[in-house]
Amino acid sequence: MNLQDPIETRLRRLPLQTPAPEWRAAILDAARAAASSESPHQAPTIHGLWRNWLQAILWPSPRAWAILAGCWLAALTLQWSLPASDSSLPTASPPTELAQRWQAWQERKRYMAELLRELAPRSDEPSQPVPAPALPPRQTLVEPLQPDESSIAA
Fold first, then answer.
1. Is 92 helix (H, G, I), strand (E, B) or coil?
2. Are 65 and 58 in contact (CB under 8 A)?
3. What is the DSSP string of 108-144?
4. Residue 84: half-sphere exposure toward Cβ, Cα within 13 Å
5. pLDDT in tens, 48-64
6. What does the DSSP 8-state code read for residue 14?
């Protein structure tokens, strides 16, 4: 509230007028009729919940949603109304690079499986533990420094 505004100070000085008694009765009757028709104590139905959810989703821009739905319907109608052409049937075309790579990968996979089968121990031969290799003796890389006789004499 701005106290320096002359319009607000003038409005504050004006006395409040009471509405006509017939208006009051008409307003209260309309409010009672609206309140009784809403029946707030009634349990919500699935139809009401579905309608409320759909309205909450579509309400921000109903015109945009209607245009989008119309475009989809037009596209589907055109798709179904056009005759199917023979070009839509698959034809024998040369393999693409992706298909060639896929085929090469499948061949490598098959080759690796064969190698693993050959290297795996056979079940008819008893498997013996492989001994650990012997470690070489420990060697030092640098000989210990021997004091030089000339440096001791000094």
1. coil
2. yes
3. HHHHHHHHHHHHSPPSSSPP-PPPPPPPPPP--SSPP
4. 4
5. 888 888 888 878 888 88
6. S
Q: Tell me the residue type at 15.
A: P
Burial state string for 108-132 with b = 16 or more CB within 10 A and e = fewer than 16: eeeeeeeeeeeeeeeeeeeeeeeee
Q: Is the confidence at residue 89, as pLDDT, over 60?
A: no
Mean pLDDT of 146-150: 63
Is the four-CA dihedral 100, 101, 104, 105 of positive or negative sign?
negative
Query: Could you tell me how far CA 80 lies from the centroid of its own chain?
Result: 31
Residue showing tokens 């006395």: 15
- For residues 66 and 4, which has the higher predicted lDDT (pLDDT)? 66
Residue type, position 36, single letter = S
What is the pLDDT, as a whole number, of residue 61? 85
- The answer to whether the beta carbons of residues 52 and 45 sit under 8 Å apart is no
pLDDT at 53: 85
Q: CA quadruple 62, 64, 66, 69: dihedral positive or negative?
A: negative
